[in-house]
């Protein structure tokens, strides 16, 4: 087959996570069969699953976080009782300590090549005035006291992040990982909501998103809305049917948060034909959708349960249809119906095309994707396949900025650096405004070019690129890397800029910032 | 380090937590067994510092052949002159030194500094990367070798005259010091995020290829400056005058210690002066001032060790003899090497001067090289550390037997 470098760029950047360095041959493979290169991953449905030894199920993680928080609370109570100063010395149960270790510099450290000779531990000399003691003026460099040990929440978050990052850096094309990120952002939770959210951010994606990325939208929808992480994030565990036994006893009632976002953000979209009455009805319908707590009265701690005591009894009308099942099936029936609603098809198709192709995607492409979604009853593999099969998706100019996540992962792939510590990447994502699993609101991270091409963001990317380059340029030739990134699809200006850079470091930083690397 | 906007505060502050010591191949156990170095013959305790100027220094602008009748015409508006304001400092009847280097001029007068002119590596093309590869690897051509001549020199030291690990200054070990022999690394805090030169090159690329990104980046750079509050303050970076001094001060302190590294290597960026190079004042003058300050910092910081020290300053190639249309110079060939230090037999410009007549120029463009840079390096290594000529010709600079060590540079 003829070699098509421009199509290879589309395959690797628009659909994938960028060419890997080393001897991967990614660019050549993509150039010889661009669509086949992208679609190969779709043929391996189980390849989307992320099963890594040590990563635990949501209930197991739930029990651990409940126990941890209970211990902290007990210690606090004991301290308060003995009138001692509050919980000093207690590890903070929140994310602050975790963020402390994140730094831009450490991304570069993480990506730095690890020569065997450098693996030896750095033992300080006995004599403080010896050769390696920093000069007086460099005092800030003095070794810092060791950081406090990570608590269970921090450890879990880092392990989940590491597993995801490693998968992303190693994936063949990265198309299915891109799909995971897309759906995970569509059905986002925020780890900043609190301990359980941080604990579950990774398992939520592994359990509710990944199994369905090449399956049915309706199945993903149900898995997401019944996942403890989502129920916690959007407060549904607090929502009580006003006429339920628990609602009457406790004089508390409905919380519409999850119901509203299901209709507005997860399925029909704003203007998708629902009313406030529909929101209220749906909120009533999903009362009782919660998870079992530490004591396990309703079930295994941390597992999804339907609490009939909290459920609003009676039939409800949503979008003109009556739902009268007496239990969890009432809500499941609503989800199944709105999952195949034409508004949902249109909303998903638009978002999908916007993410992969252009901020204002070709209307014909959106229409085709919506049609596929409707015809196949929300078959997401068919949707992804239709996208890759569409000529529109290949013809549109590469005009979108890579998101910070895509950028950092692409850099890691190109430089063949498999992360072994997530802190570096997490720090870079924080700095660039896309902290992992922590968008500012339930609408997720923005997905338009303007969001990521902002002045401060670009300047920060340049700083990060320079940092990465200062660690990694030795031992690589940026001219060779440009061949891996874009080959003859590279513009002559980019080629010249890299060739004329005055050092490898500068050339690598410029390559990472080039339009060929930043745009997709 | 200046803190910028709130969103980056976390990151910026943590940049300063860069580990002081980046152990590059440092084998502590081996180090501990190494005897204190002293030359068996005369008890000297020599030091060697290699300074690499990345981007190709204009040797004709630094040590100007004012006595050459063709010089002023070729270098045009940026040529140095021996009279007027900012006059060049006469080194002999023929060569004058850039006025931005008073410390080097003093060392020269004290016969502790020398210039080798019309010098080049064996590389004859014009790629920075390949040129730096040749300069640092010590091989005759670019070959992506993963060890440098200074590291192999450490390995080639006579038995019993082993020195402690080489010191690599900066965020990474320069190729010249990479290899099997142990090295330690050190970097001052807050080395550049992105040098201004890199940012400007990127703006240029974006202007041609991606105007939206060009605008965003320009605004981002302006924001950054505003946040730093002081436009005039030199930005942190290896090409800032203050930063060069800072780097040298730290390295000198480490190397001055009794059990400190005897050999060090560092690199300064920013010498690729294609446009607005400047003459006695301007961009190149600033860089040369930084280099001059760095040499002075080594002299001060090494204290009594300065007596036995040689600093060699080298660059990957030179620049065109004739200035270009943008008041700068392009990639050329012949350039200079500088040596300074208490162990240098200085007060001389060493040159087999080829002349600047059109017919004498290399490819009609460049100062023709008449001295192989390897001869300079070999001469220094031989005299400072007693490394045998055979080892220099076979291991340190492979296949370089015809290039004889320069005699009498050190002593």
UniProtKB/TrEMBL annotation, chain A:
Region (Disordered): 79-98, 112-150
Domain of life, source organism: Bacteria
One Pfam family recorded for the sequence: DUF1800
InterPro entries referenced in this protein's UniProt entry, alphabetically: DUF1800
Residue spans of biased composition, Basic and acidic residues class: 112-121
Biased composition (Low complexity): 128-141
Protein name stated in the entry: Uncharacterized protein (DUF1800 family)
Protein source organism: Bradyrhizobium algeriense
Automatic annotation (TrEMBL), chain B:
Domain of life of the source: Bacteria
Pfam families: DUF1501 (PF07394)
Identification of the protein by name: Uncharacterized protein (DUF1501 family)
Organism: Bradyrhizobium algeriense
């Amino acid at each position: 087959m003829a070699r098509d470098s421009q199509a290879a760029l589309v395959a690797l950047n628009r659909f994938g996570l960028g060419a890997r360095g080393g001897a991967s041959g990614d660019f050549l493979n993509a150039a010889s069969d661009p669509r086949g290169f992208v679609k190969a991953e779709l043929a391996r449905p189980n390849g989307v699953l992320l099963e890594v030894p040590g990563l635990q199920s949501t209930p197991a993680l739930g029990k651990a976080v409940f126990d941890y928080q209970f211990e902290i609370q007990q210690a606090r109570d004991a301290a308060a009782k003995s009138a001692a100063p509050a919980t000093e010395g207690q590890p903070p149960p929140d994310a602050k300590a975790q963020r402390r270790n994140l730094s831009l510099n450490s991304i570069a450290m993480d990506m730095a090549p690890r020569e065997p000779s450098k693996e030896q531990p750095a033992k300080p000399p006995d004599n403080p005035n010896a050769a390696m003691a920093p000069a007086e003026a460099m005092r800030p460099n003095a070794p810092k006291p060791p950081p406090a040990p990570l608590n269970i929440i921090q450890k879990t978050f880092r392990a989940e992040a590491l597993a995801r990052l490693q998968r992303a850096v190693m994936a063949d094309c990265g198309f299915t990982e891109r799909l995971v990120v897309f759906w995970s952002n569509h059905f986002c939770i925020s780890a900043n909501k609190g301990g359980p959210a941080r604990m579950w951010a990774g398992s939520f994606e592994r359990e509710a998103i990944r199994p369905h990325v090449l399956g049915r939208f309706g199945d993903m929808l149900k898995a997401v809305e019944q996942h403890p992480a989502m129920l916690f994030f959007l407060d549904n565990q607090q929502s009580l049917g006003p006429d339920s036994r628990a609602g009457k006893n406790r004089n508390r009632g409905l919380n519409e948060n999850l119901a509203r976002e299901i209709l507005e953000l997860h399925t029909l979209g704003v203007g998708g034909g629902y009313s406030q009455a529909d929101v209220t009805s749906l909120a009533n319908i999903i009362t009782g959708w919660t998870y079992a707590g530490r004591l396990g009265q309703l079930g295994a701690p941390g597992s999804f349960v339907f609490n009939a005591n909290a459920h609003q009894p009676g039939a409800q009308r949503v979008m003109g249809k009556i739902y009268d099942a007496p239990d969890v099936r009432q809500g499941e029936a609503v989800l199944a119906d709105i999952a195949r609603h034409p508004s949902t098809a249109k909303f998903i198709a638009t978002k999908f095309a916007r993410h992969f192709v252009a901020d204002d995607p070709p209307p014909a492409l959106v229409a085709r994707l919506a049609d596929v979604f409707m015809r196949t009853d929300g078959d997401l593999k068919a949707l992804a396949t239709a996208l890759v099969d569409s000529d529109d998706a290949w013809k549109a100019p590469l005009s979108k900025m890579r998101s910070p996540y895509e950028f950092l992962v692409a850099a890691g792939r190109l430089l063949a650096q498999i992360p072994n510590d997530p802190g570096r990447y997490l720090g870079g994502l924080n700095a660039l405004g896309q902290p992992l699993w922590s968008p500012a609101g339930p609408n997720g991270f923005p997905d338009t070019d303007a969001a990521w091409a902002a002045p401060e963001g670009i300047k920060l990317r340049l700083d990060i690129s320079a940092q990465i380059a200062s660690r990694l340029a030795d031992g690589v030739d940026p001219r060779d890397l440009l061949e891996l990134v874009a080959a003859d699809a590279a513009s002559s200006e980019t080629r010249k800029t890299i060739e004329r850079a005055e050092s490898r470091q500068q050339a690598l930083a410029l390559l990472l910032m080039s339009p060929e690397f930043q745009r997709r | 380090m200046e803190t910028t906007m709130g969103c980056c505060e976390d990151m910026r502050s943590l940049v300063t937590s860069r580990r002081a010591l980046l152990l590059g191949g440092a084998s502590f156990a081996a180090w501990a067994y190494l005897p204190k170095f002293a030359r068996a013959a005369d008890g000297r305790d020599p030091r060697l510092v290699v300074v690499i100027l990345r981007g190709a220094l204009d040797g004709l602008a630094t040590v100007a052949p004012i006595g050459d009748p063709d010089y002023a015409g070729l270098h045009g508006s940026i040529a140095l002159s021996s009279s007027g304001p900012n006059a060049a400092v006469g080194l002999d009847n023929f060569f004058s030194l850039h006025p931005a280097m008073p410390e080097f001029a003093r060392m020269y007068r004290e016969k502790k500094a020398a210039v080798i002119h019309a010098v080049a590596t064996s590389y004859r093309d014009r790629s920075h990367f390949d040129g730096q590869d040749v300069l640092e690897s010590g091989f005759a051509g670019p070959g992506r070798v993963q060890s440098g001549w200074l590291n192999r020199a450490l390995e080639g030291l006579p038995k019993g005259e082993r020195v402690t690990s080489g010191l690599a200054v900066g965020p990474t070990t320069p190729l010249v010091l990479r290899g099997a022999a142990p090295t330690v690394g050190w970097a001052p805090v807050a080395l550049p995020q992105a040098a201004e030169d890199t940012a400007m090159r990127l703006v240029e690329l974006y202007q041609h290829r991606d105007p939206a990104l060009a605008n965003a980046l320009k605004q981002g750079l302006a924001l950054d400056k505003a946040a730093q509050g002081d436009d005039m303050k030199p930005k942190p970076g290896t090409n800032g005058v203050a930063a060069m001094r800072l780097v040298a001060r730290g390295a000198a302190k480490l190397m001055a210690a009794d059990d400190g590294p005897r050999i060090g290597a560092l690199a300064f960026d920013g010498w690729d002066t294609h446009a607005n190079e400047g003459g006695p004042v301007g961009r190149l003058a600033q860089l040369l001032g930084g280099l001059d300050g760095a040499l002075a910092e080594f002299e001060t910081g090494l204290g009594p060790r300065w007596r036995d020290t040689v600093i060699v300053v080298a660059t990957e190639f030179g620049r065109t003899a004739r200035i270009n249309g943008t008041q700068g110079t392009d990639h050329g060939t012949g350039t200079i090497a500088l040596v300074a230090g208490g162990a240098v037999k200085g007060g001389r410009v060493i040159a087999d001067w080829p002349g600047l007549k059109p017919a004498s120029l290399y490819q009609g463009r460049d100062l023709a090289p008449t001295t192989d840079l390897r001869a300079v390096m070999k001469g220094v290594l031989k005299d400072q550390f007693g490394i045998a000529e055979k080892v220099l010709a076979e291991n340190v600079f492979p296949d370089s037997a015809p290039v004889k060590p320069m005699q009498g540079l050190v002593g």
